[in-house]
């Protein structure tokens, strides 16, 4: 995906601008037109800087917690009968993050100027994504903004909790690996050179493992800068390649065919697909419009293409479950449950149950993976330490055995 900056206007000649990540310019144009906006100017922006710096959280940005709290508090205030503008003003004053407070100040000014809340939020795509805006728009159209905000807050909280569990499962393996890398680096740079000088002084006959260890140590000491450059260069090249349409497609397909992580990735995508589609349908958004929004949301080209194909079939009158049943990327349970939802008229409920099922499957798979990783990491750590110790002791053993 690439970053684009756009300027557009609506039917009343009001201008909107912002930045958004999409696959290509065509996708952005289609998305703007769906929102009733006419593109005036679109510019592709390159992300400049080192990959590690770009990967860090933006200082002063709007966090997920802030959006969740804002949505929950706004829903409570509107349900209590407080006017929208008054509620927004209160939330603006309560905001501790100055960047978020500035965004809310602009939203307040736009709403007071007669703009719909969804249109005001649309001007800030980095804080409020397309799903959020679509749901707010549906709530305004149906006169049920308070109910939509409650559903949206609940969904955001569940999604945040699910992501926290997913990330938390990998904390221990990551810490172990990082510590292992640090220990090996310290050994190679500081300990091995001292042993090398000792072996040279005593004239020890060095076996092959020790020679390899000394070579690696010398390489790391003398060409550490090259290793850092190669690491950053490879990271930057991969990042740039993944931002291209072809690169994103290749990488996503490679990830999906990985033995263990591929299955977890598929389950995570299906959980996102069913949860988002169910939420959109529950707020009264037509199935085709909801599918188009979900297709724009998914960053995996494989599933995005499958949903776009399903949209074409649904537009011609085919039930949604049929193209999904014919697509091997969607497990049979998805088509079967959607068929039940279409026949009973409870599509939103069925999709929410499916999302809970896939989230549970994801949590179980990730937990099993991390449980299996722990002993594997310890085994590799033991082998590494064993090889290191053996390479250090062998010259001393050869020397003592010669007497």
From TrEMBL:
A biological process (GO) annotation for this entry? protein secretion by the type II secretion system
Q: What Pfam families would the database entry show?
A: T2SSF
Statement: the UniProt record of this protein carries the keyword Cell inner membrane:
yes
Question: What domain of life does the UniProt record list for this protein's source?
Answer: Bacteria
Q: Which ranges carry the Type II secretion system protein GspF domain? A: 70-193, 273-395
Per the record, membrane topology reads:
Multi-pass membrane protein
Tell me the compartments it is located in: Cell inner membrane
Family, as annotated: Belongs to the GSP F family.
Name of the protein described by the UniProt record? Type II secretion system protein GspF domain-containing protein
Q: Give the organism the record lists.
A: Candidatus Curtissbacteria bacterium RIFCSPLOWO2_01_FULL_37_9
């Amino acid at each position: 995906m690439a970053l684009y900056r756009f300027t557009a206007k609506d039917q009343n000649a009001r201008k909107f601008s912002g930045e958004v990540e999409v696959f290509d310019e065509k996708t952005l144009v289609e998305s703007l037109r769906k929102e009733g906006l006419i593109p005036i100017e679109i510019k592709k922006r390159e992300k400049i800087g080192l990959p590690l710096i770009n990967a860090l959280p933006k200082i002063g940005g709007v966090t997920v917690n802030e959006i969740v709290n804002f949505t929950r508090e706004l829903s409570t205030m509107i349900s209590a009968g407080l006017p929208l503008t008054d509620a927004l003003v209160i939330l603006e004053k309560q905001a501790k993050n100055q960047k978020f407070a500035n965004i809310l100040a602009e939203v307040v000014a736009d709403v007071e100027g007669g703009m719909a809340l969804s249109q005001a939020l649309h001007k800030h795509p980095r804080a409020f994504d397309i799903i959020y805006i679509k749901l707010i728009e549906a709530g305004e159209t149906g006169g049920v903004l308070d109910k939509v905000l409650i559903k949206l807050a609940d969904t955001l909280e569940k999604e945040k909790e699910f992501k926290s569990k997913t990330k938390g499962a990998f904390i221990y393996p990551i810490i172990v690996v990082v510590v292992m890398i640090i220990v090996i680096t310290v050994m190679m740079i500081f300990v091995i050179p001292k042993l090398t000088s000792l072996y040279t002084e005593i004239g020890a006959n060095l076996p092959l493992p020790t020679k390899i260890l000394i070579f690696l140590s010398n390489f790391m000491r003398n060409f550490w800068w090259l290793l850092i450059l190669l690491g950053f260069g490879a990271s930057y090249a991969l990042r740039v390649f993944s931002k291209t349409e072809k690169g994103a497609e290749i990488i996503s397909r490679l990830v999906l065919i990985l033995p263990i992580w591929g299955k977890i990735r598929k389950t995570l995508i299906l959980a996102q697909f069913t949860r988002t589609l169910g939420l959109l349908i529950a707020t009264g958004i037509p199935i085709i419009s909801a599918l188009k929004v979900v297709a724009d949301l998914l960053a995996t080209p494989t599933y995005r293409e499958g949903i776009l194909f399903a949209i074409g079939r649904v537009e011609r009158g085919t039930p949604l479950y049929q193209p999904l049943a014919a697509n091997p990327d969607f497990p049979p349970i998805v088509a079967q449950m959607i068929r039940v939802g279409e026949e009973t008229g409870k599509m939103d409920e069925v999709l929410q149950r499916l999302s809970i099922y896939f989230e549970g499957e994801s949590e179980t798979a990730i937990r099993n993976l991390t449980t299996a990783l722990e002993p594997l990491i310890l085994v590799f750590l033991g082998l590494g330490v064993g090889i290191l110790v053996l390479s250090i002791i062998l010259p001393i053993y050869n020397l003592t055995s010669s007497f």
